[in-house]
Amino acid sequence: xxxxxxxxxxxxxxxxxxxxxxxxxxxxxxxxxxxxxxxxxxxxxxxxxxxxxxxxxxxxxxxxxxxxxxxxxxxxxxxxxxxxxxxxxxxxxxxxxxxxxxxxxxxxxxxxxxxxxxxxxxxxxxxxxxxxxxxxxxxxxxxxxxxxxxxxxxxxxxxxxxxxxxxxxxxxxxxxxxxxxxxxxxxxxxxxxxxxxxxxxxxxxxxxxxxxxxxxxxxxxxxxxxxxxxxxxxxxxxxxxxxxxxxxxxxxxxxxxxxxxx
Length: 262
Prior knowledge:
By secondary structure, this protein is α+β, with helices and mostly antiparallel strands. It is built from six helices and twelve strands.
């Protein structure tokens, strides 16, 4: 697992195009893929800080259709890659091989969801939610050939589902009044509407996605902890902004968030 993680770490450092892990390093199943992911994330954590959040990929029909895959994927988010604030966030396009952004509902936990408490359902995880907010995931697909993804899902898992962080909007702490399933999200780039979706597109409800990752982590002997953030999956298909672009995500009662690309 460590050798596979080192191979991934070097591929990123070399800005190499996304490719499946070599046969001698490739995971044989999802369990091995997540073990590699953990080792790879540990290498990144030396400079980017500890894991303080999680992403869930492929939770909506739009995203599953885009990559022609039918199962959700979890990834870790590292402390120094998480930006906060509804305005003023900036990233450099040149810092990525191919910058990719996604438009999501984020959840911040106010209490722990340890592995011993599994299985979790929507009602149980709802009690642990301290705030919700709009979020823009920052990712790098490294110019991936999407036609190969359905046959290489394990390599995508190992590569931490391409996560490079997230921008989180201002937290809404009085969130019990908000029907997350009904939240309408609108993605705009340079003022142009590039996609819309609803909270219900995310596994039926964003808190069902939260329960999914709590159970997924529990199966791996891990928990979600107070202060952790989970981004629950893109309401619209991924977008690939360029230098100079202004990104805005409007999410109804959750507010809005902006990101500029330098």
